[in-house]
Design a protein that fits this description.
The protein is of the alpha/beta class. 36% of the residues lie in helices and 24% in strands. The chain has seven helices and nine strands. Helix 1 (28-39) packs parallel to helix 2 (56-68). The protein starts with a strand and ends with a helix. The model has no long low-confidence stretch (mean pLDDT 80).
């Protein structure tokens, strides 16, 4: 479900290319679950990178899982999640949109990627720089699954973001890779505030939707 689109300049290409970037750190079990979620999709991305900052004891296992799944494996020193995400973006042509599906993240179903690409294509005439979707949080409570979908509306998300109560939900955000690079925010030392700063940058650049 699309919450809203942040519009940018007109696109040169006739249709969107959406790449997946998966960042992982010392967690091969969660990486394997994310990889299975991607491999189960009815449509696969043209480009998928697994950016690994794990210790040496996990690197070989992570590399094998990534390459067997058809992803490009990239190891980068552990400098934090945003430098790792930026390393994944560095591998992309500027025309690509990037979708961060990090280890511990999952697609909600086998048609998630296919349906998301269709949603972005249907809004191509709006020249999007960013498309924000609803993010689902699934937690287990005993034998029960609890599903919460946040935010509930575009206005709720924007208000919460501007008040500093939420950040930018990575698995629900699809952004032009060149926009992230030009912002320079993932290369700064503001750490966990980088995605929040990127969302504010997008609103400042284009105005509220």
């Amino acid at each position: 479900h699309v919450l809203f689109v942040v519009r940018g300049a007109a696109h040169e290409m006739s249709e969107p290319d959406i790449a997946l970037v998966t960042v992982t750190y010392n967690n091969p079990l969660e990486l394997s679950r994310t990889i299975r979620s991607v491999r189960a999709q009815t449509r696969l991305p043209r480009f998928w990178a697994v950016v690994d900052s794990s210790n040496s004891e996990f690197q070989l296992q992570n590399r094998q899982m990534a390459t067997e799944a058809g992803a490009r494996y990239i190891w980068t020193p552990p400098r934090g999640i945003y430098p790792a995400m930026l390393q994944g973006i560095a591998e992309l042509p500027s025309r690509y949109f990037v979708w961060f599906l990090n280890a511990t993240d999952r697609f909600v179903g086998p048609r998630s990627f296919e349906e998301t690409v269709s949603e972005v294509e249907s809004r191509w005439g709006q020249a999007p720089d960013t498309v924000w979707f609803q993010a689902g949080v699934v937690a287990t409570s005993g034998s029960e699954l609890e599903r919460t979908f946040l935010p509930t509306s575009a206005s709720n998300f924007i208000q919460s973001l501007l008040e500093g109560r939420v950040g930018m939900p990575h698995p629900a955000s699809i952004i032009r890779s060149d926009v992230v690079r030009r912002s320079g925010l993932f290369a700064t030392d503001i750490h966990v505030s980088a995605d929040y700063a990127l969302a504010i940058y997008l609103f400042y650049r284009h105005g509220l939707p």
